[in-house]
UniProtKB/TrEMBL annotation:
Native organism: Sphaerisporangium flaviroseum
Source domain of life: Bacteria
Gene3D superfamilies on file: Heme oxygenase-like (1.20.910.10)
Name listed for the protein in its UniProt record: Iron-containing redox enzyme family protein
InterPro entries the record matches: Haem_Oase-like_multi-hlx
Family matches, as SUPFAM superfamilies: Heme oxygenase-like (SSF48613)
Length: 335
């Protein structure tokens, strides 16, 4: 992945630093003034900071990963992001461990009442709209499972074993061709899209970046490990039916078995993962850490809320007969 185009003063300043060898700099002047979840400058800056902990960025010295000045800048951005999440997702109190499962179920049921992106893609989307959807999803799916894997060394016992079981499936049981990220690459290729890592980073809006960033936020901070588990559980609980609709929609548009395999795989796998995530992973974590059950529910609600905002963005654009992707000239701050 190369450094993307800047989207404002934060990314401009950040990218200027990253283009140089690691050095100390003053992070304090960083300011983000827009609504955090829809601020492309803020979300892109966070995404790039986080990416240094994943596959890195071409031309950026790897020693930046743990540079104190950069971490200080990232923390300023994270506080703003956390404030934005708190504005749309109420922070729940801890509940008894036995109440975690029904509470997660209630959140998933409530989320199903929102705008259905999967139904739109199944029944109404044209091929270009489906391709746009895949472009958005490529930001996460090309590194699918990686953010949640950060939790493995932070757990023990039953929750750890449950998470490892889920993640092993995400990584194809050790077989490259079955890794979910590789299955998604096949979908992209069948849709004549660039399947290289981060190829469309300049085209996606803030809300798409926020979906990925919240996983990294939770995954890279031990204090958020309960939220990370709740986030994963919410994804698994709300995955099977939408993925069945995505598959049907893509077949309606002429997609073949290779194009739909990614979605078909999730219909089966996530039905199993849901039970493991809710009962063994989150249930076991709640028993071991009853004071953190509120974090589990918070992480789940964050996942579902951001997905709702994402669906509203895509459907709103498509109903208005406009693209859901950003124009590169506007991303670069040019008129």
């Amino acid at each position: 992945m190369r450094l993307p185009l800047s989207r404002g003063p934060i990314t401009t300043r950040l990218f200027e630093q990253l283009a140089r060898p690691p050095h100390d700099f003053d992070p304090s002047p960083v300011r983000a003034t827009g609504a955090p979840l829809h601020d492309g400058d803020l979300q892109l800056a966070l995404f790039v900071c986080y990416e240094l902990h994943y596959q890195g960025i071409d031309g950026v010295d790897e020693r930046w990963e743990w540079n104190p000045s950069l971490l200080a800048m990232r923390r300023i951005l994270e506080r703003r992001f956390e404030d934005g999440l708190a504005q749309v997702v109420p922070r729940p109190s801890a509940v008894p461990p036995a109440a975690v499962r029904p509470a997660l179920t209630e959140l998933a049921i409530a989320a199903d009442k929102g705008p259905s992106l999967s139904k739109f893609l199944q029944r109404e989307a044209d091929l270009e709209q489906f391709r746009e959807f895949v472009v958005h999803r490529s930001i996460y799916h090309l590194k699918e499972a990686d953010p949640h894997t950060w939790a493995i060394p932070r757990l023990h016992g039953r929750p750890k074993a449950a998470l490892v079981e889920i993640q092993a499936d995400e990584y194809g049981g050790g077989r490259l061709q079955r890794m979910h990220s590789e299955l998604f690459r096949a979908t992209m290729r069948r849709l004549e899209l660039d399947d290289s890592y981060g190829a469309y980073l300049d085209r996606v809006p803030a809300i798409t970046l926020a979906i990925s960033n919240v996983m990294s936020l939770f995954g890279l901070h031990r204090r958020w490990r309960g939220a990370l588990l709740g986030h994963l559980a919410a994804l698994e609980m709300t995955s099977s039916l939408p993925n069945m609709r995505y598959s049907r929609g893509l077949r309606r548009l002429g997609g073949d078995a290779e194009a739909t395999r990614f979605y078909d795989e999730h219909v089966q796998a996530d039905a199993v993962h849901e039970q493991i995530a809710v009962h063994d992973m989150c249930g076991g974590f709640a028993i071991a850490h009853p004071g953190l059950t509120g974090d589990v529910l918070y992480g789940a609600d964050c996942a579902l809320t951001l997905e709702r905002l994402f669906a509203e963005h895509l459907i709103g654009c498509w109903r208005g007969e406009t693209s859901s992707l950003a124009r590169t000239d506007l991303v670069a701050g040019r008129s």
